[in-house]
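FORM 7B - TANDEM STRUCTURE REPORT

SECTION 1: FIRST PROTEIN
SEQUENCE AND TOKENS:
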Amino acid sequence: MVARQLDEQIAGRFPVGQRLRVLDVGMGQGTQALRLARAGHQVTGVEREPAMIAAASEALAGEPEGIRERVRIVEGDGRDTGVHFLPGGFDLVLCHGVLMYVEEPDALLAGLARMLAPGGLLSLLVRNADALAMRPGLSGDWAGALDAFDTVSYRNRLGLDVRADRLAAVTAALAGIGAPLHSWYGVRVFTDTAPDGAGAPGDLETLLAAEERAGRTDPYRAVAALLHLCGVRG
């Protein structure tokens, strides 16, 4: 879903065929970085976890030379982008699944915005604090659902205590750093309670079509597990 939504934003903001300068902060195993490199873009990935860097490097090594040449991996923390890069050096900055691990995200967000060229696109994927009661509630954990209404903290599927973000708060933060919210989507509206490791269903395309529509439709997108928020540098 995130890839489809991101492609929609790229197509709507940049000329067809433009090769973008992409910064992927917290690139993980490199899923989005490699996908964008295959599309012809120049991608720099920042990652601090050695295991993730190793996984991304291994995946990159299996790509054709032309794609390998378009990807650079930098070991570092997303809060230190100013140490590694000049302001305004990227057309697209991704930060997916990172903010939930950052206790005070304002400095990180401001640093990401500084990396954007004028008109550049900032893509964030965050846990939706306004819907934290949905997963325990749908799972029959009524006490957990009641507790979730009044907090932005939760325990993720890795067993880590992390934090979520409210749409209104991120919207205000993006406006304050000069990259106001342009579009937003819900992600995992219907599938958040699917068990880890579950195989793809036989009607996968129908499922994706339902998720895609729900992710852009009120009121469904507001109760998604994740929010995909896209800001544009003024």
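SECTION 2: SECOND PROTEIN
SEQUENCE AND TOKENS:
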Amino acid sequence: MIAAPDRTPLPRTFFDRPVLEVAPDLLGRILVRTTPDGPIALRLTEVEAYAGESDPGSHAYRGRTARNGVMFGPPGHAYVYFTYGMWHCLNLVCGPEGFASGVLLRAGEIVEGAELTRHRRLSARNDKELAKGPARLATALDVDRALDGTDVCAGPEASLSVYTGTPVPSDQVRNGPRTGVSGEGGVHPWRFWIADDPTVSPYRAHTPRRRTS
């Protein structure tokens, strides 16, 4: 089980800050997904920041839509989107309400409930790969659009919640370009990860998708 200090929920004020402060500060925190079969806890090891309507790489760059509406709401909520017709990705909304910034959860270490994730991630060669990448993380935690808008500050009764964990010292945090983001949005060094952690996903530059005839 998770040690008692990790069971202190992060307050909403933690998320009500600029996205470039929140993103690296999420490393080492504990995300808990409560399922009917039991809890799954994940230590965050890699994240990516998106700065709303000022950021060409953000879903909110062109304003509010039915898809991204949660991003414009209060901080401390989950924004879940479906991509490429195949995968879900999980983000945490931060910054002042109306600004639409958020942090994509890219990778983590399953520290509790790994047995509940392995049947969803049959291609993982070991437990370090269970949540190594944003789509894999969401798949391992059984995250889909039904969790869009979940209040992650609501505590242990919520289906998704974030706890204090063990913050990572600044000298162990690395940053670099965001993975797979094209154009102007791809130049920002707003991906943050824990140095030398084996659960961190490999960097990949954007590759244009080919249209099939």
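SECTION 3: OBSERVATIONS ON SECOND PROTEIN
The two ends are 51 Å apart (CA to CA).
The chain is about 10% helix and 25% strand.

SECTION 4: SIGNATURE
Preparer initials: ____
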